[in-house]
Amino acid sequence: STRTGSFRFRRQGQYGTALLRTAAADVSRPSTLEPLILEGPLRGVIFAASASAKGGSAAAVDRDGLISTAELCVRARVPRLCIVSSGAVTRPDSAVYKLLNFVGKGIMEAKIEGEDGVRQLYASPDLVAGGIGYTIIRPGGLTPAYDEAGAWLGQGVSALELNQGDSVSGRVSRADVASLCVESLMSKAAFDTTFECYEADTAKPLESVGISNILKQRKPTSVKTGKERRSSSGAWQDVFTGLINDVTA
Hints:
Helices cover 27% and strands 14% of the residues. The chain is an alpha/beta fold. The chain has a 5-stranded mixed sheet, with helices on both faces. The protein has a two-stranded parallel sheet with strand order 4-7. Strands 6-9 form a two-stranded antiparallel sheet. Helix 1 (58-75) runs parallel beside helix 3 (107-121). The longest helix is centred in the first third of the chain and has 18 residues, at 58-75. The chain is globular, with a radius of gyration of 17 Å. The relative contact order is 0.13.
């Protein structure tokens, strides 16, 4: 995905493989996605687009663009749609939500409306029975995937913690969020789930996570939700074990 409105990879030629093809599309214009989201060849779709000055408004991208993408995935019976959303998205009373929503011109409102639209769309018993589902990932504060020299900054699954309930957050590398997205496509435990992710040693309640992230603190909270999930084996798939499926009213 791109925030600039133009389509250009950071490293030319890096992404041409037998397993991955690249193409330009605009999530705010579903007609550009229709030739790409087709029944049969796709194991999953990852939606990591978000609003930007040149790439579209929050309503156009984070809400309408997401829902349009989900509708195309359902129509094509793509087995899994993975969505990168945001921590604190259900907490309009929190300082994190208020700041991000103000700076992002309604982005948090658009993200939760997009999430809710997806959950409603995928609530059909036919889709559930057919193994057609979604995974919503809510990262904490995003840190770079690469350093200035181009070195990968992902910490790996052993450093991560997942949670549910939108009451705890922290910081996480874009590299690890990308890995979670790819791994979730293959996880039965992540089917129709929504969860937060962050580096375990940065975990803080939403009330204090903003200051903790600004100061780059690494002293995790002692308060537990009981829904923490970590990989004890060091395998990515194990981190999803025990996630609670969403219930759509």
